[in-house]
Amino acid sequence: MIKIEKELSKRYGEKIEVFPIWQGDYKDIYKFSLKNRALVVAVNKKKSMSRSYRTVLSNALQQWLFLKGLNVPEVYDFFEVGELLFAVHSYIDGKTYSDFKEHQLYLIGRIVAQLHSLTYQNRPYVKVSKKAYFFCGAIELLSRALRNVKNLITDKFYRTLPVGICHLDLTANNFLFNEEDVWLIDFDKQKRQPYAYEIYRFLKNDISRINRTLFIKGYESVRVLNNKEKNYLAFKGIEF
Ligand SMILES: Nc1ncnc2c1ncn2[C@@H]1O[C@H](COP(=O)(O)OP(=O)(O)O)[C@@H](O)[C@H]1O
Ligand SMILES: [Mg+2]
């Protein structure tokens, strides 16, 4: 923690005090304030090249989404010191819920559809500067190609569904709620997938039929599912 305070103080030229708010498997999160702004810093260990690459990409995507007006934390700064990656985001004054209330399902549906609409046929521009990241990108592309081949063989719907960047980690602690709205955080697992697959993944986990209906209502208030997507969800056993 002292090391983190030291690095932040050095970077911003003033004494910074941090407060731990989260210890994750591979990143820790601290809250701090800078020039009257409430911020968080996620400190990632550069365990592997592909993990660093993912962190770079997810922050680039998040900032692109922020500029497009989606409710995500602004990426205030991003830098590396030795083995550590620092991602500084605006602090969202919200709460996570382990059980969503009904109106929250509607808001979740809406923000997921906003994400899907924004990324459809749109790619955030990411500057990949380092050679190493380039190699990771190549590996990522290769594994994506292999996965697509596998999907083509195993899933007859796959070819026909609208595809774009999905969040793919739509879990309770990645939605922050205040009284009015919801914020989506943690884009580390983002990937190009059929949007209906993301919806299937979210709805298959213990979401009651009533809540599924609310989610879909919120979703379709922004982006209407086409028949192929509806058939896919039915095929996967998701009724709403
Ligand atoms: N910008 C933020 N504002 C407020 N709280 C945050 C912010 N980012 C993360 N958190 C808190 O830290 C927790 C973990 O963050 P997250 O990025 O999801 O890490 P992990 O990848 O370990 O899941 C969140 O559930 C939230 O409570
Ligand atoms: Mg998370």
Task: Write a concise synopsis of the structure shown.
This protein has 240 residues and is an alpha+beta fold. The chain has seven helices and nine strands; from the N terminus they run H-E-E-E-H-E-E-H-H-E-E-E-E-H-H-H. Helix 2 (49-67) crosses helix 4, helix 3 crosses helix 6 (209-220) and helix 5 runs parallel beside helix 7 (227-235).
Q: How would you portray this structure in words?
A:
There is one protein chain. The protein has 240 residues and is of the alpha+beta class. The protein folds into two domains: 2-90, Phosphorylase Kinase, domain 1 (2-Layer Sandwich); 102-235, Aminoglycoside phosphotransferase (APH), C-terminal lobe (Aminoglycoside 3'-phosphotransferase, Chain: A, domain 2, Alpha-Beta Complex). The chain has seven helices and nine strands. The chain has helices at 2-12, 49-67, 102-119, 131-154, 195-203, 209-220, 227-235, and strands at 19-23, 27-34, 37-45, 75-81, 84-90, 163-166, 175-177, 182-184, 191-194. The protein is globular, with a radius of gyration of 19 Å. Residues 21-22, 24, 27, 29, 40, 42, 73, 89, 91-92, 96, 173-174, 176, 185-186, 188 line the site of adenosine-5'-diphosphate.
